[in-house]
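Sequence in, structure out.
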Amino acid sequence: MLPGNAWDDPRTWIAAGGLLIGGLGFLFGVFSYRWNRRESRLESLSKILQPLVKAAQHLHEANGCRRQCEQLKLSFPQAAPPSEAAQRVNMLVNQYGEHIKNSHDDFRLAESEFASRSFRFPDKIARLIQKVVESLSEFGRLVNGGLFDKADLQFVKFRDDYTQITRVGRRWRLADPLEGLKRHFRREKKEDKAADRYDLKDEDMNVIMEMVHKRATSQARNTFAVHPPKKLLERPEIAKSEKVIEELDDSVFSVVFQDGTSRMMTLVELMVFTFNLIALAQQYAEVARMMEVVPPVEREITVTFRMSIDDIMRPEMVRFLLSKIEFSKAPSDAGEAEPARQT
């Protein structure tokens, strides 16, 4: 005998449960298919992007090698073959050739992967990949042409084009359901400290002190070049004027060692670098005088001194420090179209 209410019949619940399980199975199959399809596309996309990124890295390294090579030739035009500058130039030329060859191989691999897998991507992704390939090709052309600054800008453009693809790739994966909410409510703490006019970041100060240490150790027997801005070469009286800081505050100086180490410095950084070199030389001379009156015993000597950037950046101190620098005749801000020549 059938019950009056169908829901009181156990067979109804069994049928409903079977229907629910079937529906869930169907949804699982659909989502699984879409997930596998996206994962397959992501795998194909990664096989194309990986050699592109490697090619860009090699081109970026090649651009840096050629830039250092040209900078050394400009800073030390009369370097003899046995000198460290000449040896460094030869090493950089070899590294440049290796990076160019590796970038060419990776770029050809990326082109072949894209040609064989492009049909798997939507038109939008295919256009983005083609845009990245063209951007990287232009980057290589600028590196081969020796246009360093334009190549750096093109490298930034390549990274922007690459970022557009990665954003699409992120939407293909199964993200954390709460990831959007977490990102929305996440707030970065902003520092309330007002930066001093002449304040240097810790990483900048560390780089300067590393260069001071290199100058005092491995580069003690070698000369180094300091390239001033063009306006200081054209108007050397600026270094002795009362407004020397205002005149050179936005200028860029280039310091080049014979081992290829170079750094673009602001006026503040150059003054700190020069002050530390002078202070170190004074401390070294004082220690040498002290050692002359004591028995020659092997010992470890530690030299410490303090400095204030505000005191260093006083006009009279800046004029004094600039007078101690023998600037190169080649400006630091020479354009690529007309390379600077040292006379």
